[in-house]
């Protein structure tokens, strides 16, 4: 007769005050990795080794910062590796073409840089427009453009390698190998991109809107957020960052081929996920992504330095780490 | 309490409820319902929104368990463990949103979960034959191999019925089967219902269309506020009787004193406004300090109309805000014109459930909290003010909004909308599923807005709310304005008559006002 027997389903939130491992997890893992590194090889923290590791991780790092925004707003971009190869190839062709008329000068390099940035923005816009205006799933769109960019660079290189004019290469070289106060340029650029990214994500309406769209697109739409514009912007931003990463990459080898940037997209996505950004979107943190990038590159570096485990197992260890990171994420959402 | 059934009903009931009660937490929605359903009988269950029809149907078909009383099948007490359990015993509920796998073929859907097999493999030829036979029985020409997604709604309904029959349903319960059907499709459905009835299937269904009930049901049961009002043979009740039974409720003194009569100044003028597929040629005006109600049944196009007005749906027609013709293409445009819309779907469209209160509160008016960067301190202050002004009760500040009670969520949603300080607030179903105390707070708040000279459109399916709060009421049905009521004309009877389409002078009255 009388009710009230059924347990009142009042939401009683667990007032958790314990240490949030999912927030600190990536940092702890990185710290652990550094300690292990120091123990295994005294050279690990040497200036030379650190510069080498950080400079090489800067490409993935710069891209991963952009990827953080795309993933936070509920998107994905599989095309960034191919995009980087395509941009690198086109930059080289443009610069080589300009050498006869302009001579090997800074102007040529500047044109190359402009080409890289512009092409990145364009490629990002193509992805973004197909996702927003075309209403096609991001996975499908970028799977498609991944193939397109990759095959375009293969075609441009005629199946071989595109090499930058040697005289231009000399001028361009300091972009990767130079630096100030002993810090290499790629590291500086990565740091600047990461800091700006972190601020944009945390402090600006754009960052807030990304998280809102990734959490619940409908709520964002009903709250006067210009969903399509924000989405498109994340892809353009990522494109531009791919352009910047490529600008740093080209002087390193001075060439581009169909194998340039292979699997960069997966490394970037892995770094984002390890850093604690939710793959389904709704929550992202740029500093986490930076930590994720460092974890991935230190692992590779350690395996090369120490003879304990074969460096061929690098991929396996990275895989384990990615899966662990996602399990931590899931536990957080279950405890929520 | 109930009116006794006078006509002799000879057969014994196949499914019945004895003093069935149902509560969700502290909220009781069914009170000691007695109900009998007999073979070969079409039984209509009617009542206002929230009267408990759906809950009763779900309780009878195993989707909900009664918290009091018992359910009898063939005179024996039963406790259905689940909807599937009830189905196994011949009691099938057809949901309003169909339970079909869109990508699968018709035959695969009909036999889903009970596929005939030959060894380890599906016996597709048998499935096809049986599906064809079932569909032929229903006199439809649906091809068993079509994918369900390609079928029109009426055919999907037939597939649901075929699925029910393949399960040897003796009791078929349908939740508003005609709400989504055209007149012709409804005809087809009624012919099938007649046929099933002759074969001794017991049919229980709900509908808001009283003429339809009059036409096809043998017996009618009216529920009101979770109570059984009357069960009678349809022949003994006129359509007006039914409406009266549905309504006859006393108004509890829930409502604040009405705000003073609105000023003469018109703040919003909408004319010839249409929203694709949902609303047609709607015209109305809103004055400063006025609370304008939009009444009608669920699905009458009110929500879509309002979404069209604030640019959430493609729409056309003339809209004047403060006498100026405006083109609102997005909620942002609307907000710039001082118009804000509060969605009816607070969980799906109103709030981000897995975020804290602060970002939720400021999302709509975020530009008010930043120069270049978001000013966290100002946000926190706004949250302080909002929790105080709207009496939002949260265990702690950083709680995820999904953990708040419905009432507190609703208050947060109100606060979020009010951050942009709109002149014209469109509030859609603000009290759905929340307790009386919070309802009262929300009513007071709406009246206060009007007193401050803001204007308010209140979309509500709770008539008492409309009557208790509004200066003027527009009644909609099937996307059209059926009539406009003001002052003394605002009562449940008039609203129901317009909403049910029983009153045909509505349009005239509306015109006469201008």
TrEMBL record, chain A:
Presence of keyword DNA damage: no
A matching Pfam family: BPD_transp_2
Subcellular location: Cell membrane
CDD domains for the chain: TM_PBP1_transp_AraH_like
GO cellular component labels: plasma membrane
GO MF entries: transmembrane transporter activity
TM spans (from-to): 21-41, 53-71, 78-98, 104-126, 138-157, 177-200, 229-250, 262-279, 286-306, 312-328
Protein name: Ribose ABC transport system, permease protein RbsC
Organism: Lutibaculum baratangense AMV1
From TrEMBL, chain B:
Keyword Membrane attributed: yes
Keywords: ATP-binding, Cell membrane, Membrane, Nucleotide-binding, Repeat, Sugar transport, Translocase, Transport
Mode of membrane association: Peripheral membrane protein
Highest taxon in the source lineage: Bacteria
GO MF term set: ATP binding; ATP hydrolysis activity
Pfam families: ABC_tran (PF00005)
Keyword Membrane: yes
Compartments it resides in: Cell membrane
Major subcellular location class: membrane
ABC transporter domain ranges (all copies): 15-250, 262-503
GO cellular component, one term: plasma membrane
Family per record: Belongs to the ABC transporter superfamily.
UniProt protein name: Ribose ABC transport system, ATP-binding protein RbsA
Species whose genome carries this gene: Lutibaculum baratangense AMV1
């Amino acid at each position: 007769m009388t009710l009230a027997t059924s347990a009142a389903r009042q939401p009683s939130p667990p007032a958790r005050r314990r240490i949030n491992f999912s927030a600190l997890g990536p940092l702890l893992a990185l710290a652990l990795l550094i300690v292990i590194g120091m123990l295994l090889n005294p050279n690990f923290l040497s200036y030379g080794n650190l510069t080498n590791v950080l400079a090489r991780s800067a490409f993935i790092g710069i891209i991963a910062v952009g990827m953080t925004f795309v993933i936070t707003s509920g998107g994905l971009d599989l095309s960034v590796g191919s995009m980087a190869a395509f941009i690198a190839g086109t930059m080289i062709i443009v610069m080589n073409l300009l050498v006869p008329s302009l001579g090997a000068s800074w102007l040529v390099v500047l044109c190359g840089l402009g080409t890289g940035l512009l092409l990145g923005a364009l490629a990002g816009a193509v992805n973004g427009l197909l996702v927003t205006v075309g209403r096609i799933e991001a996975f499908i769109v970028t799977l498609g453009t991944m193939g397109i960019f990759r095959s375009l660079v293969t075609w441009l290189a005629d199946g071989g390698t595109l090499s930058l004019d040697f005289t231009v290469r000399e001028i361009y070289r300091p972009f990767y190998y130079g630096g100030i106060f002993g810090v290499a340029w790629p590291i500086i650029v990565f740091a600047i991109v990461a800091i700006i990214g972190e601020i944009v994500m945390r402090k600006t309406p754009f960052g807030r809107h990304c998280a809102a769209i990734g959490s619940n697109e409908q709520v964002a739409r009903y709250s006067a957020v210009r969903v399509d514009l924000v989405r498109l912007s994340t892809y353009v931003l990522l494109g531009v960052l791919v352009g910047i990463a490529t600008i740093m990459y080209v002087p390193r080898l001075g060439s581009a081929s169909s194998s340039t940037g292979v699997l960069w997209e997966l490394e970037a996505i892995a770094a984002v996920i390890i850093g604690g950004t939710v793959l389904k979107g709704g929550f992202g943190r740029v500093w986490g992504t930076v930590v994720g990038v460092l974890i991935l590159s230190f692992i590779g570096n350690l395996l090369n330095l120490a003879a304990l485990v074969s460096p061929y197992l690098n991929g396996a260890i990275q895989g384990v780490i990615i899966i662990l990171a996602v399990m931590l994420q899931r536990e957080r959402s279950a405890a929520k | 309490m109930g009116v006794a059934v006078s006509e002799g009903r000879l057969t014994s009931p196949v499914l019945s409820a004895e003093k069935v009660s149902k509560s969700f937490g502290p909220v009781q929605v069914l009170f000691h319902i007695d109900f009998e359903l007999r073979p070969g009988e079409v039984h209509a269950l009617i009542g206002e929104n929230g009267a408990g029809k759906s809950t009763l149907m779900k309780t009878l078909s195993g989707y909900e368990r009664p918290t009091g009383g018992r359910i009898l099948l063939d005179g024996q007490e039963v406790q259905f463990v689940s909807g599937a359990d009830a189905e196994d015993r011949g009691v099938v509920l057809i949901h309003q949103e169909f339970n079909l796998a869109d990508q699968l073929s018709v035959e695969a859907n009909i036999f889903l979960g009970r596929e005939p097999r030959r060894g380890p493999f599906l016996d597709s030829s048998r499935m096809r034959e049986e599906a064809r036979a079932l569909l032929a029985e229903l006199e439809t020409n649906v091809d068993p191999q079509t994918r369900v997604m390609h079928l029109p709604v009426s055919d999907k309904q037939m597939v649901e019925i075929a699925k029910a029959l393949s399960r040897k349903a003796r009791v078929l319960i349908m939740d508003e089967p005609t709400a989504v059907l055209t007149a012709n499709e409804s005809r087809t459905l009624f012919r099938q219902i007649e046929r099933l009835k002759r074969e001794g299937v017991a049919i229980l269904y709900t509908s808001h269309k009283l003429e339809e009930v009059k036409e096809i049901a043998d017996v009618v049961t009216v529920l009101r506020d979770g109570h059984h009002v009357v069960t009678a043979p349809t022949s003994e009740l006129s359509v007006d009787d039914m409406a009266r039974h549905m309504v006859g409720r006393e108004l509890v003194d829930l409502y604040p004193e009405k705000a003073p009569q609105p000023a003469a100044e018109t703040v919003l003028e909408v004319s010839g406004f249409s929203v694709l597929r949902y609303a047609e040629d709607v015209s109305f005006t809103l004055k400063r300090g006025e609370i304008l109600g939009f009444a009608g049944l669920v699905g009458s196009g009110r929500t879509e109309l309002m979404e069209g007005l604030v640019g959430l749906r493609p729409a056309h027609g003339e809209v004047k805000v403060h006498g100026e013709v405006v083109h609102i293409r997005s909620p942002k445009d609307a907000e710039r014109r001082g118009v804000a819309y509060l969605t009816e779907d607070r969980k799906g469209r109103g709030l981000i459930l897995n975020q804290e209160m602060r970002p939720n509160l400021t999302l709509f008016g975020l530009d008010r909290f930043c120069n270049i960067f978001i000013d966290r301190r100002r946000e926190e202050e706004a949250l302080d003010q909002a929790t105080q002004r709207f009496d939002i009760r949260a265990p702690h500040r950083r709680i995820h909004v999904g953990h708040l009670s419905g009432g507190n969520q609703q208050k947060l949603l109100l606060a979020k909308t009010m951050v942009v300080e709109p002149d014209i607030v469109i509030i859609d179903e603000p009290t759905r599923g929340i307790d009386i105390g919070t309802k009262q707070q929300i009513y007071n708040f709406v009246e206060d807005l009007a007193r401050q000279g803001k204007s308010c459109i209140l979309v509500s399916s709770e008539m008492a709310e409309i009557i208790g709060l509004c200066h003027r009421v527009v009644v909609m049905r099937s996307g059209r304005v059926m009539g406009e009521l003001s002052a003394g004309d605002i009562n449940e009877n008039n609203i129901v008559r317009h909403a049910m389409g029983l009153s045909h002078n509505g349009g005239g009255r509306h015109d006469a006002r201008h």
